[in-house]
């Protein structure tokens, strides 16, 4: 993939674009003048982010899409190419979650989780790479998690799906190794302040939250843009995330135990919560980039400092 200085007129497809990481990423690409294809389950929420992206100067095509539907994913890719002629970057940011010990959820909830986070990602990766091979160019960005590396017994099934996504990324990276202009990047975020936690299926008995100190989704969006500009196999955001991954390389068993205990303890609040399926089966009508978990100036500043993206200065673009 040729390195870019700017994304002006690049065609960028973002799934999960109506909320959280996907929404922040879409807005960041729009600010650089990209031509955007935005997908999520909620037409109402997509209309909101479409308006925001157009206000930032981006050209936008909105395609309501359920990534668990093979025909819908193919339609998404086809409409993107019909409208803009190609796809330069595909950011796969769809994710749903389940919290609670194994056995507390329903079988239907498990199926929906795996269908969305694993099967849906496979369908999108297949559609993206098919177009990239046709045009001999493109970057696929998969959004994993620190839970692609570390266990968390409070969200065991969600973590399992993120381990699967990391396995997919590693295999796809080898599959495209002979095509230097096609790249697959894996991004492993730490705790991010998005609506994800309030919309996850919750059987923990307590309210969920982003593990403090969470950082703003715009920080992660900056890392995603950096990967699309200068593709690399794996990237993360924030000092704590870098330290956690470094510790795992040195002492995997110890670091897994520490992170699992920390995550399981701090991903919930003391306040009780009734069990529910969240947005697993029905998308919320409205979207937002932020979840409202970064309250207090000191906490926000700490999250910003620990979550500061390490974005290297880019080399001159060749196109």
From TrEMBL:
Keywords: Oxidoreductase. The keyword Oxidoreductase applies. Pfam families: adh_short. Gene3D superfamilies: NAD(P)-binding Rossmann-like Domain. GO terms for molecular function: oxidoreductase activity. One of its GO terms (cellular component) is membrane. Residues 10-195 form the Ketoreductase domain. Belongs to the short-chain dehydrogenases/reductases (SDR) family. This is SDR family NAD(P)-dependent oxidoreductase. It comes from Micromonospora costi.
């Amino acid at each position: 993939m040729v390195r870019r200085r700017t994304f002006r007129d690049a065609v960028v497809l973002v799934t999960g674009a109506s909320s959280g990481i996907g929404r922040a990423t879409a807005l960041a690409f729009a600010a650089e003048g990209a031509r955007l294809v935005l997908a999520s389950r909620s037409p109402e929420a997509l209309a909101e982010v479409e308006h925001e992206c157009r206000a930032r100067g981006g050209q936008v095509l909105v395609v309501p899409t359920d990534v668990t539907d093979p025909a819908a994913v193919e339609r998404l890719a086809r409409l993107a190419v019909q409208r803009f002629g190609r796809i330069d970057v595909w950011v796969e940011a769809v994710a749903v979650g389940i919290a609670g010990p194994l056995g507390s959820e329903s079988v239907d909830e498990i199926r929906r989780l795996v269908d969305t986070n694993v099967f849906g990602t496979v369908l999108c990766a297949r559609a993206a790479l098919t177009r990239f091979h046709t045009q001999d160019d493109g970057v696929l960005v998969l959004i994993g998690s620190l839970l692609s590396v570390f266990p968390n017994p409070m969200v065991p099934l969600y973590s399992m799906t993120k381990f699967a996504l990391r396995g997919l990324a590693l295999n796809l990276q080898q599959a495209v190794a002979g095509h230097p202009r096609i790249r697959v990047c894996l991004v492993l975020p730490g705790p991010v302040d998005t609506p994800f936690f309030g919309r996850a299926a919750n059987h923990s008995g307590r309210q969920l939250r982003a593990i403090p100190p969470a950082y703003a989704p715009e920080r992660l969006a900056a890392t995603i843009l950096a990967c699309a500009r200068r593709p690399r196999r794996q990237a993360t955001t924030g000092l704590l995330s870098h330290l956690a991954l470094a510790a795992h390389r040195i002492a995997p068993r110890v670091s897994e135990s520490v992170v699992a205990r920390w995550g399981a303890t701090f991903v919930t609040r003391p306040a009780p919560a009734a069990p529910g399926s969240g947005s697993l089966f029905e998308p919320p009508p409205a979207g937002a980039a932020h979840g409202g978990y970064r309250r207090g100036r000191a906490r926000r500043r700490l999250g910003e400092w620990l979550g500061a993206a390490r974005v290297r200065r880019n080399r001159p673009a060749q196109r």
